[in-house]
Amino acid sequence: QVSGHKALEDLGSLMLRVNAHAIRTYFLLKSDNTVHPPEIVRNHVTGIFFDNKVYYNTWFLDEVYAIHGIQMIPVSPINELARTSHFVEQEWNDILAHEPIVAAPNSNVSWLSLLLVNAATVDPMDSLRRLKNATMDDGLTLSWALYNAATRCRDGVVIKGEITTELEIVIVI
């Protein structure tokens, strides 16, 4: 739209959609995925994807929340093209909701902030409530997390409520 060239806009849209489809097919796996074997599909994410091998892990941490959380970075509204509400619901209900950092009432693991932004698709009010006091991931601010969580609702969900937070600004001269 910026350039005024409709063909260029259409090409960009096509490229985004093809990439999102590839991500949904090969990396973010709904239960009905037929590309990968069932023992991989049940994890909902591939983890490390080699040329001919899928390794449900990361190179930096062996925790399930990290294997899933790394697939959520960077937090951005564009993520919904690949992380559809149906996928997020399956991933959350089958795996992430049972993770100790999610189940613990006062978890201070920074990965939780990423999981909660993502989970806002499934349960927006609980995610927004918990995000207010969550330890933020190093690359995530509270305001960006709250904005993304508040705008990540699945179709037909109406949110009524109020979120308040205090902001302290320190100027060092």
From TrEMBL:
It comes from the Eukaryota. Gene3D superfamilies: Immunoglobulin FC, subunit C (1.20.5.420). InterPro entries: Endo-beta-glucanase (IPR005200), GH81_C (IPR040720). The keyword Hydrolase applies. The keyword Nucleus does not apply. Its EC number is 3.2.1.39. GO terms for molecular function: endo-1,3(4)-beta-glucanase activity; glucan endo-1,3-beta-D-glucosidase activity. It catalyses: Hydrolysis of (1->3)-beta-D-glucosidic linkages in (1->3)-beta-D-glucans. Pfam families: Glyco_hydro81C (PF17652). GO terms for biological process: cell wall organization; polysaccharide catabolic process. Keywords: Carbohydrate metabolism, Cell wall biogenesis/degradation, Glycosidase, Hydrolase, Polysaccharide degradation. Residues 1-146 form the Glycosyl hydrolase family 81 C-terminal domain. Coiled coil: none annotated. PANTHER family: ENDO-1,3(4)-BETA-GLUCANASE 1, GLUCAN ENDO-1,3-BETA-D-GLUCOSIDASE 2. Belongs to the glycosyl hydrolase 81 family. This is glucan endo-1,3-beta-D-glucosidase. It comes from Plasmopara viticola (Downy mildew of grapevine).
